[in-house]
Amino acid sequence: MSYEEDNCIHWERLRSGDKQAFFALYNNTYAHLLRFGLKICGNDELVKDCITQLFLQLWSKQQTLRPVSNVQAYLFTALKRHLIDQLTYQSKIHAAVNRMTDEASERELSYEEIIIQVQQDEELKQRLHRAMKALTPRQTELIRLKFFEGLTYEQIAAQTSQSMKTAYNTVYDAIKTLRRLLK
């Protein structure tokens, strides 16, 4: 039996869910796929990852796979597409990181700008602190639970023995008051 006939048999058995055939196909074709992938991309780790991902996809889609007359050509094509997709994705990520780095270096603030920002932040904190003092104790408690402890309205209602609607309305009124005071 030839190499390709052997692979065709493994392919058909893989389509019916045979794990042994899946592993046999993997073992028969791995070295060929690795050599082929390295011709496309010199990154051996990426090629190995793509081969593994390709076989994981084959296993997960085994029931929808179609009969193939040349299994090796099918696997080479699938690997090539997968590698190209990964290389494209990596180049987009690399470009985005470079763009963000360039923007960050362009936006570096001077020492004076940093001091001004810190002062503005401090002023905003003081204004918020004063505005929070204008709230009722219940509103303050619910704002703390919602925004500082990150609880959901359902959790707030359970913790404060209120209905969820009451908790929501109390937080809504508190936010409305804070907006008015901070303008």
Structure description:
The relative contact order is 0.07. The chain has 8 helices and no strands. The mean pLDDT is 86. The protein folds into 2 domains: 102 residues, Rna Polymerase Sigma Factor, Chain: A (Orthogonal Bundle); 72 residues, Winged helix-like DNA-binding domain superfamily/Winged helix DNA-binding domain (Arc Repressor Mutant, subunit A). Helix 1 crosses helix 2, helix 3 crosses helix 4 and helix 7 crosses helix 8. Helix content is 82%, strand content 0%. With 183 residues, it is mostly helical.
Keywords:
single chain; 183 residues; mainly alpha; Rna Polymerase Sigma Factor, Chain: A
| Strand composition percent | under 5%
Low-confidence runs: none
Helix content: over 70%
**Global Rg:** 30 Å
Taking the sheet with the most strands, its summary is: none
Briefly summarize what is shown.
By secondary structure, the protein is mostly helical.
